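dude i think i finally got it to work??
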Amino acid sequence: MTSLNRIAILAAAVAAVPIAAAAAQGGGMTASGTLVGPANAQRGTVMVTDAPTGVLVRIEASGMTPGWHAIHFHEKGVCSDQGFKASGAHVHRGKAAPVHGLLNPAAKDSGDLPNIYVGADGTAQAEVFSTLVSLRGAGKRPALADADGSALVVHANADDYKSQPIGGAGDRIACAVIK
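look at this
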């Protein structure tokens, strides 16, 4: 890992401390799930904590392929099928097809999240914040903990944050039901 990557991770961690502390003090609702890979092999955990303006997501993973991987919130809390296709499309508002990409000016995809980095040892620990969703629908943001739940999906490749439909993220390689 380069010094620049370490600085970026440290800066993200320092910025997340007040958010995590506020959620803990304010009793922010939390949902969690087990991250599974092919053949339902356990790959880690996901914890989502509601915050006043979005959600804080903590991911701890192991047994993964090293490198950058896209992560997205998917619309259904189902991770039981091969390839995790039953988790559906990305979480989004309304009935119109979402426009993908955190760097796309026309984006309307509430399931978009920043990429995570898996180290050479196959492990990743990350905290990311999303203002695009909530656990229960606060602020008219899509609810992750709705009637059919949602899933956090890890993809084989990095998201380029622009191209359609999923930023070149590739196959779904791990999945966690958010409940």
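Strands lie at 30-36, 42-51, 54-61, 67-69, 71-74, 116-118, 124-130, 150-155, 172-178.
im so relieved honestly
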